[in-house]
Amino acid sequence: MADFHQNGIITTLHNLSDRSLEDMEYDLLHFSRFRPMGLILPSLFSELEGDALPNIVEHLKGANYLSEIVIGLDRADKDQFRHAVGFFDELPQHHRILWNDGPRLKALDDELQRLEVAPREMGKGRNVWYCMGYMLATGRAESIALHDCDIVTYDRSLLARLLYPVAHPQFNYEFCKGFYARVADGKINGRVSRLLVTPLLRAMKRVVGPNEYLEFMDSFRYPLAGEFSFRRDVLNDIRIPSDWGLEVGVLSEMYRNYANNRLCQADIADVYDHKHQDLSLESTEGGLSKMSVDITKALFRKLATQGETFTSETFRSLKATYYRIALDFVETYHNDAMMNGLKLDIHQEEKAVEMFAQNIMTAGQRFLEAPMERPFIPSWNRVVSAMPDVFDRIVEAVEEDRKEILSE
After folding, report:
1. What Gene3D superfamilies would the database entry show (predicted)?
2. Which CATH fold would you assign to the domain 11-406?
3. What is the pLDDT of residues 362-395, one digit of tens each?
4. Strand 175-180 vs strand 228-231: parallel, antiparallel, or unpaired?
5. Assign residue 186 a region: left if phi > 0, alpha if psi is -120 to 50, beta otherwise?
6. What distance in Å separates the CA atoms of residue 310 and residue 303, rounded to the nearest whole number?
């Protein structure tokens, strides 16, 4: 059970009483009359064949307050798309699949590419962006949640607690970030958040000096959580990264677009686990190594937009400051683990810190070498300006894909 402490400058909504799921869903069903709710599920086809997603779908069958579920399907051929249609047709809610590798959506993407308003690389960011566009196009949902499809400890209460802050008619939150303890199988997980993001933010405060954005980011208990919810109007002008900086990028956009009192974070799960990435010590092009470079660059880019100047000397100071803070955190987490009867491998933790420290320099060098890099996907407001009928065409492509499969 969480405490009630409010840290930082963002409202924290705790789990203080283990309120029953039935009670929360009763409220959500009532709220849905005023603020219809939807869910975005960015998925790889391979996740349909795993253990997590079938369990998630089973739980979602009971979420009768949802007006719409939108699934973004990546890395699927036609036979796999056909399988996905049958797989998700168990859902009683209105739902649609965006077959991102299908000829119709690929043709639309090609046109948007020529207009220079489309994502430039494949990945979760692109998948989420198209799902957001579809949600805007249908207008069926006013309050929308997004969560991953690889959560092996999924329970429907996670969704209820995630949606509640943006669905309650008397709340004025535009955005809610989920948080939870990354503890599973007797271990503390979440290395990138614990050992990179938090100590890096603390190091930036020392090197850069007092900064409201850094204070904002450091207020989130789990900034890399892939679970968040928002009102539909948030989708119009948000610009999200297409790389591993997605979660940091979304928070940065919330900082830019909204006052702090319109944002919150909520405790959404007692236990949370999903598939884990390799450290990838030998290469910065995969695993947690690439993730750390992308996240670090995202923070550098945001500070640069505020007028901060970075040099190679700045990055060296930041690396040294980060390294000392991160090593102190390793000891802190080891003590926390021991007190709670959990395992934590100090050797592996320090290897991760060493890699992250080196990747701060790598990210800094890449930032200096490509200062005009544009990793952000354009906002949907800009896309509509470039292609006024884009929403109609997304809906038509999705409906035609589904009709073709069902008619076979």
Report:
1. Spore Coat Polysaccharide Biosynthesis Protein SpsA, Chain A
2. Spore Coat Polysaccharide Biosynthesis Protein SpsA; Chain A (3.90.550)
3. 999 999 988 666 668 999 999 999 999 999 999 9
4. antiparallel
5. left
6. 9
